[in-house]
Amino acid sequence: xxxxxxxxxxxxxxxxxxxxxxxxxxxxxxxxxxxxxxxxxxxxxxxxxxxxxxxxxxxxxxxxxxxxxxxxxxxxxxxxxxxxxxxxxxxxxxxxxxxxxxxxxxxxxxxxxxxxxxxxxxxxxxxxxxxxxxxxxxxxxxxxxxxxxxxxxxxxxxxxxxxxxxxxxxxxxxxxxxxxxxxxxxxxxxxxxxxxxxxxxxxxxxxxxxxxxxxxxxxxxxxxxxxxxxxxxxxxxxxxxxxxxxxxxxxxxxxxxxxxxxxxxxxxxxxxxxxxxxxxxxxxxxxxxxxxxxxxxxxxxxxxxxxxxxxxxxxxxxxxxxxxxxxxxxxxxxxxxxxxxxxxxxxxxxxxxxxxxxxxxxxxxxxxxxxxxxxxxxxxxxxxxxxxxxxxxxxxxxxxxxxxxxxxxxxxxxxxxxxxxxxxx
Amino acid sequence: xxxxxxxxxxxxxxxxxxxxxxxxxxxxxxxxxxxxxxxxxxxxxxxxxxxxxxxxxxxxxxxxxxxxxxxxxxxxxxxxxxxxxxxxxxxxxxxxxxxxxxxxxxxxxxxxxxxxxxxxxxxxxxxxxxxxxxxxxxxxxxxxxxxxxxxxxxxxxxxxxxxxxxxxxxxxxxxxxxxxxxxxxxxxxxxxxxxxxxxxxxxxxxxxxxxxxxxxxxxxxxxxxxxxxxxxxxxxxxxxxxxxxxxxxxxxxxxxxxxxxxxxxxxxxxxxxxxxxxxxxxxxxxxxxxxxxxxxxxxxxxxxxxxxxxxxxxxxxxxxxxxxxxxxxxxxxxxxxxxxxxxxxxxxxxxxxxxxxxxxxxxxxxxxxxxxxxxxxxxxxxxxxx
Lengths: 425, 386
What we know:
The complex is a heterodimer of chains A (425) and B (386). Chain A has 425 residues and is α/β, with parallel strands linked by helices.
């Protein structure tokens, strides 16, 4: 049997790879060309604002996950531990320190030095410790953008005011470093592009409501989400999502999905184990599992669930050129690990229901306590209170040493066997 | 008649070793109409709770408590204090508390607040975000809004308004207490033989379970009694302890460090008792005074970002000022903030030629021989080879 090649087949995966490749290549020459470079995080970032000043953006987290996927994270982590970092602290940070010790050369090329370290620590306090360390290594100015936690389950006026006022303190610093004046028109143009990409991305995510799902909202989403988190506000990003959506439409038209025959639909909570990504996926694939919803794909921002503001509404978040600073602030607050546990639980419940899932899989990673602490408690809630089949497994997102394949396989097999049994299949 | 030091210390020991929080039930009285609020370390604004007529109670972990229930709710790769505090709650040993307040010190404390809200639905659970952009002109204003939320929540619980005068009065009481604590600390730095750190720590820790007014009386009597105490000066090393700002090491660990030949002349134990470096200046709006004090005068720690003066510089300055001989990093296992800061600080110590050692502890740690040997070697290497 010969495989049919469709027009948009694998576009989502391949075009994303090309874009990231080009982005890394641009980074490698930024210092030489004397173009400004800013380091920042994925979660709730304010990249649109930096884009106005023409900053090249470096995401240490993306570097860390790239090192994981390309199997060099283990070495970098050991290098960092040799200099005194504890085996128990976040593997992403240690990977990044190892990269610095390695003269900032990774599998993606050489990273430029930062002219600005912008720590938006949405949902992760370890980000603070991470950038404090980078400030020591690079002797670059550090701006600590303080993002309050969404403990009360809503976007409140105090937090928005605090954030927008910090933006007005950040802008002069960006002007000084980049030598460029702030332009409101340029910002609005960028935000318009962000919004376009966001609309398209949500359409892709919601395609998983179909049975069978044309898209894996975890194992595929982690690639499909790269452009929106890394190059939001650029034209290429919008182009990417147009093409990626075409691929999804094509899959729907031809009844193709991420697994040959969809047997189980699950919601995935937690990040992937990057150093063993493929093996991990295979453990699920062989059971015909499709992840129809995931929380990790919301780690940077959330566009598919209503934003709870001081005035509740059913509107989902979008960057808005008409409310530039307010929406950038809303975005900073509204990312998954900056959500309170009540909100996180509601998201999982909603995905389980709206996407007609058979169970919840919780992948708990040691490195990221912001993600993990509370997951075991949530398992209690879903399995005991809601009677939802829930699988709880542990490894790590960065450190290859914590991935025990045989153990994971046992647990995953047992879970889906029992689901199959219950169904009488 | 004035009490002897040992008598006072015994009284304190009874309070801190009592796992049933009897001091809290005694305070609440027979009718239990008064409220007590648990305070997670480090920067929980006890003054606001005190002003509400409630008793702030320190949550300092579960010591050697057996973990039977918390394991099913928190993974094993998390610090002891988070797991043991939850265990205390699940075992019903914190039932005397009417609420719990968590400050934004780390991801674990933050997420624990969420776990708490789900598992103890009848308790008042609040989370306070402390600004980390302390150079922003708007940090104080933001913190005021956070403190207001806490105040409103407490008012709703008690049904009584908290006035500005109430808060100002509580700030004064806490200022006085902190001044006495700081006097005791200074005395120990100057004459570490007069009071050991395990003794000092027991006395300070007592203040987390009784009203501050009462604790201040104890502190004053300790200061008086120490004068009459005759203790011989030993030939010990003057060391600074770093890394115990939140989770507390077992008291035996402190004793081991001292027995192995060290005078602990400064530490960050139970930092909550002295989190302002100077008395809080009252100026009009007392919540603003509190917020201003956190942003501008809070004691430096690994859980408060201050880029204008990094932690390693603070440590080196302290080392010189106190004429210390070495630094002991004593960090809780799995404590991200302490373990990340350790690397930056020890790099600077190495550059400055300042001796240090480091180890991690857990609450239920029970064997101290390894630590003893490590410290004895450290002491010898400085005394005889430096």
